[in-house]
């Protein structure tokens, strides 16, 4: 799997594969040494799985990289737990080369949600149907403005900043400011975590 990913990614002129690790336990020292922009991490590993490796990475590394979970099944509960833990998106092992490259670029840019329909499906299945107290409390504390709430709903639908700008008839920079405000108020690392909070609090219905 690693050899295949390396071959696909190294064929791109704008992507460099900085290194490889055989297990989650080896990720943190490698990230500190190599400072990658994106880590593609298997969700299931023998010594330290992708969920715990993600938590450890975000807890111990300053300015951590974006994390792309690699998984066999899109509806895996482990995937949702990884997203809740701070992963930025996920990629199926059966993905075509073009999809792999697109996923890495999209995660690196951070301006739209990767596979929004799948994230919505995962939230519907594992997201407690708006009954997550911590998520509700985070949303209440955030006190989002009406416009920020609109932006969060559009983020949850998977729209990019440019698409949100077109929908709301405002400039892209204005949308970026609103997105930044939403993330800051929710205490979210990125769009994925903000959208999960929106689903788990009941602010956005995942269905």
UniProtKB/TrEMBL annotation:
Keyword check for Transmembrane helix: no
Keywords of this entry: DNA-binding, Phosphoprotein, Transcription, Transcription regulation
Residues recorded with modification 4-aspartylphosphate: 42
Stretches assigned to the Response regulatory domain: 1-108
Top-level taxon of the source organism: Bacteria
All residue ranges annotated as the HTH luxR-type domain in the record: 137-202
SUPFAM superfamilies: C-terminal effector domain of the bipartite response regulators, CheY-like
PANTHER family given in the database record: TRANSCRIPTIONAL REGULATORY PROTEIN NARL-RELATED, TWO-COMPONENT RESPONSE REGULATOR
Protein name listed in UniProt: Response regulator transcription factor
């Amino acid at each position: 799997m690693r050899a295949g990913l390396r071959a696909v990614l190294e064929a791109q002129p704008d992507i460099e594969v900085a290194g490889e690790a055989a297990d989650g336990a080896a990720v943190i020292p490698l990230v500190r040494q190599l400072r990658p922009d994106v880590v593609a991490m298997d969700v299931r590993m023998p010594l330290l799985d992708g969920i715990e490796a993600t938590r450890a990475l975000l807890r111990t590394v300053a300015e951590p990289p974006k994390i792309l979970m690699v998984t066999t099944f899109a509806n895996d509960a482990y995937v949702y737990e990884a997203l809740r833990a701070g992963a930025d998106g996920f990629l199926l092992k059966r993905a075509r080369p073009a999809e792999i490259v697109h996923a890495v670029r999209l995660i690196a840019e951070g301006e739209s949600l990767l596979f929004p329909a799948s994230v919505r499906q995962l939230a519907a299945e594992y997201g407690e149907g708006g009954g997550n107290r911590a998520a509700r409390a985070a949303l209440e504390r955030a006190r989002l403005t009406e416009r920020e709430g609109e932006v969060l709903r559009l983020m949850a639908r998977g729209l990019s900043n440019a698409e949100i700008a077109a929908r709301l008839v405002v400039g892209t920079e204005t949308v970026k400011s609103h997105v930044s405000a939403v993330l800051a108020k929710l205490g979210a690392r990125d769009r994925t975590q903000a959208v999960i909070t929106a689903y788990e609090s009941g602010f956005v219905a995942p269905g």
